[in-house]
Amino acid sequence: MISFRLSTLALVALAVSLGADGAQAKAPPRLQDRLLTLDTHLDTPASLEIPGWSIVAEHKGDYTQVDLPRMKRGGLDGGFWAIYTPQGPLDPVSTAKARDFAFHRAVQIHEMVAAHPEAFALADKADDAARIKAAGRRVVYLSIENAWPLGDDPGLLQTFYRLGVRISGFAHFRTNQYADSATDKPKWDGLSPLGVQLLAEMNRLGVVPDLSHSSDAALADALRLSKSPIILSHSGCRAIYDHPRNVSDDQLRALAAQGGVIQINSVYLRKAEPNPEREAALKALEARYPEGRALPAEQYAAFLAERRAIDKAYPERGRATFDLFMANMLHALKLIGPDHVGIGADWDGGGGVEGMEDVADLPKVTAALLAAGYSEADIAKIWSGNVLRVLAAAEAEAARESAAATSS
């Protein structure tokens, strides 16, 4: 039998949803939609290599995590779209190919925006993000993950700056000509002499230095030498999981003292359970379909079929959970406060946890922060205020250096 009695909560909800004359009123926007929500490390541009893949269509079962429909559901207003180049040999021929690939990726991002001007807009300044959101579009800053494509010319960063790059890293999984990597043998004991020049060029241009993936010594060098605050665009806390890609409490305190921000990652949250059959199968798959190579439609379909077969035969063991991701974030927040913590989950680059699989799940983060006692003002800083403050500081430093050069 159907009950026609309404609970008190249901009556309150009905009263809010109805106008004085009983007509349906527009529901107030949810908090996630009121917030300016940015992620500082979107590897989604790699998806633009997929045959027939479109950012404005919703995708299921292709291992991607960001597209416009899911951005809308999750309230993601955009962020920093990465020009990622997997590290290769440091010889001139390989480096020139890396440079060309990086320019190709930057052009792809521009083409994505140009193809969908109603949905996306390029951003140059910190103030652009709020304006773009107010216009109902998604924010597209560019970033560089791995400076290897710059070759031996830090001045080439200026060209990428003109293309919209506002955050740049130094190294990736392997040590290169600019810095030691956190996950490779050191060569420079931090930043190389060329890396110091690149840092100075970042300060001159107004590009935020990103030390994610770089070694502890490189982070120390950047904190000491940079004239504007630095960022860790997608990193985590070593107190939660002791991994070279994460940072210690002392490093977090030093970062906050310099005015910088750690953008919390959803990777490196726990030690992976041994799964040798899966690891061997994935390694063989990567050998057949190398990272960064565009595949014809038939080959891409074959890749997906093989990947799904691996997942079925050798499922992941002991995935990190949403609660562990939040423990990572809450540790940083407790240690250095909401002025120095943000989010860079590494979407489409290995990010995602059980309970937060793609960007449609972002409101869960906001709800967890509210439950932990953080105010809407705090959460606004975490989702975008802090990174935009750091970008504004980089802009101010560039203006100061330009004025000094003009007057000298």
Automatic annotation (TrEMBL):
Q: Which UniProt keywords apply?
A: Signal
Gene Ontology BP term (one): proteolysis
- Extract the signal peptide range: 1-25
Extract the GO molecular function terms from the UniProt entry.
metallodipeptidase activity
Give the InterPro entries listed for this entry.
Answer: Metal_Hydrolase, Pept_M19
Q: Does the keyword Ion transport apply?
A: no
Q: Please name the PANTHER family in this protein's record.
A: DIPEPTIDASE, MICROSOMAL DIPEPTIDASE
| UniProt name for this protein | Membrane dipeptidase
Supply the source organism for this entry. Novosphingobium olei
